[in-house]
Amino acid sequence: LVPAVVPHAGGSYAAPLLVTSDGSSLGVLRLGVAYSGTLQALGGTAPYTWSLAAGSGPLPAGLSLSSSGQLSGVPSAVGSSTFTVQVTDSATTPGSAPRAITLSVVAGPSSTGLSVSPSTSSAWQPVLLVATVSPAATGLPAPTGTVTFFDGDTALQTVALQGGSASLAVATLP
């Protein structure tokens, strides 16, 4: 973005300062995955100085805001955060503009494994299916949600994850 200069009789002046970034322009934040995004402004007199506005809600846990408008860090909690940024320009009489932004942190990448016990079974023998879902980064909490077990195209049952795993005992496969 470039500063906007508005000509008028006898000279020109910088257009009013405006924060152009919003939550949708800042990309997706994933739990446990390093994030970096830059806030943008238009108008006023560059360079700009960024801060959280007085009375703002907090940034998503694990993120920080630099005075140059860089949001960065490793999100440490899933959920939405609404906060208000303020940009101040460097004019002789500085102008400033606030903007509320909502960012959502979603679950990070995970890996899923499936085990069958006993590992070799014969027809009509009961089996235990265990799905294990693990976060891709160490130190993160076990994923939550549900797992649906299938036999081919047939859904057998949906089971809630507990501690990152879900089990289904099957007397016989259809």
Summarize the structure.
The chain contains no helices and 16 strands.
Put simply, the count of helices is: 0
Q: What is the H-and-E element order?
A: EEEEEEEEEEEEEEEE
Strand order, sheet with most strands: 4-11-10-7
Radius of gyration, Cα only, in angstroms?
A: 26 Å
Overall structural class, as computed from helix and strand content, comes to mainly beta
Q: What's the average pLDDT?
A: 86
Separation of the first and last Cα atoms:
61 Å
The percent range for helix content is under 10%
| Count of beta strands | 16
Molecular shape:
rod-shaped
Portion of residues in beta strands equals: over 45%
Main sheet summary: 4 strands, mixed
Low-confidence stretches: none
How is this fold's topology laid out?
Elements: E1 5-8, E2 11-14, E3 18-19, E4 29-30, E5 35-38, E6 41-42, E7 49-52, E8 63-65, E9 70-73, E10 79-88, E11 96-106, E12 110-117, E13 127-135, E14 146-151, E15 154-160, E16 165-170
Parallel strand pairs: 4-11
Antiparallel strand pairs: 1-2, 3-6, 5-9, 7-10, 8-9, 10-11, 12-13, 13-16, 14-15
